[in-house]
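quick q for whoever's on today - can somebody do inverse folding on this one?? i tried earlier but teh output was garbage lol. tokens:
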């Protein structure tokens, strides 16, 4: 897989990209092999050599911030990527990973979104907070983190404050979905505006729909798109269409959905996992299989959706 190593200059960093071969152990945790160790050593040499940015280098910014939850003020961080040569403030998204943490999915969508004129704030809500599925906090824990990321972006002159969306995978998609609830915006943002657009990948809708109905809240009305596969072991093959129907008939809200026949949860991941124990999966077992066609199509569609709904100039 590709990795990006950065050398810092103040608050800004210059990236050196290299290819690292990785494998996963039986628990699904990522581990470096000997090739990755050699590549890491090479990266250190390259960083030392490239003290000045070249045309191929990409300026990024690493930002530390805290959750808005005063009872649990977790320290979190994110990496901001901005379109090159932007002459004015740009729209941006907060990108939230799945339970496993930041992986290749963020990189997969990065260049197409940057080329579309959209900045990306890829956040890390895992490091220092949890290690895996067994000790991960409840979904609502990530809401004040996501809204804190929104506030951080609004501080930056390079980002258009009223054109910030959110995008996420699995846990991140579920977090993004919850940020669309008016009650959650009121709780964490007060009278400030929430996110302007929502792009969700297999967001585990089943539990959300039940909680949403009980909450009495409404959605903000901001444009939303959901990508999912019919063979999703977390139930989104059924739950996403049901949520779409509920929102349309009861709340008059139209959500765009993109269904991929035969695709599984995590269809962008280039490794297969069968019968992995996951508490939120149906029967507590998850199945993941790479679907290159669905992956390619989703890249094109999500870039077009965000470009249109964040009013890229």
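ok took a stab at it. sequence:
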């Amino acid at each position: 897989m590709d990795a990006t190593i950065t050398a810092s200059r103040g608050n800004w960093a210059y990236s050196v990209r290299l290819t690292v071969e990785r494998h996963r152990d039986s628990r699904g945790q990522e581990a470096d092999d000997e090739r990755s160790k050699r590549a890491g050593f090479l990266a250190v040499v390259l960083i030392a050599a490239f003290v000045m940015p070249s045309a191929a280098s990409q300026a990024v910014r690493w930002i530390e911030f805290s959750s808005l939850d005063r009872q649990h003020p977790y320290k979190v961080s994110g990496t901001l990527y901005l379109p090159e040569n932007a002459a004015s403030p740009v729209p941006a998204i907060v990108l939230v990973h799945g339970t496993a943490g930041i992986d290749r999915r963020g990189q997969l969508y990065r260049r197409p979104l940057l080329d579309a004129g959209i900045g990306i704030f890829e956040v890390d809500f895992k490091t220092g907070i949890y290690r895996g599925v067994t000790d991960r906090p409840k979904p609502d824990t990530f809401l004040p983190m996501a809204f804190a990321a929104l506030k951080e972006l609004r501080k930056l002159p390079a980002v258009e404050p009223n054109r910030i969306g959110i995008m996420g995978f699995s846990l991140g998609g579920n977090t993004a979905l919850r940020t669309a609830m008016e009650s959650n915006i009121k709780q964490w943002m007060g009278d400030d505006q929430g996110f302007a657009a929502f792009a969700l990948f297999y967001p585990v809708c089943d539990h959300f729909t039940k909680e949403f109905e009980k909450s009495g809240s409404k959605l903000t009305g901001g444009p939303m798109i959901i990508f999912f596969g019919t063979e999703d072991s977390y139930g989104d093959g059924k739950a996403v269409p049901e949520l779409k129907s509920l929102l349309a008939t009861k709340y008059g809200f139209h959500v765009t959905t993109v269904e991929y026949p035969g695709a599984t949860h995590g269809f962008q991941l280039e490794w297969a996992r069968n019968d992995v124990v996951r508490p939120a999966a149906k029967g507590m077992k998850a199945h993941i299989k790479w679907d290159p066609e669905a992956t390619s199509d989703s890249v094109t569609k999500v870039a077009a959706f965000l470009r249109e709904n964040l009013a890229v100039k």
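fwiw The first strand starts at residue 2 and ends at 9. also The radius of gyration is 19 Å. so keep that in mind when u check it
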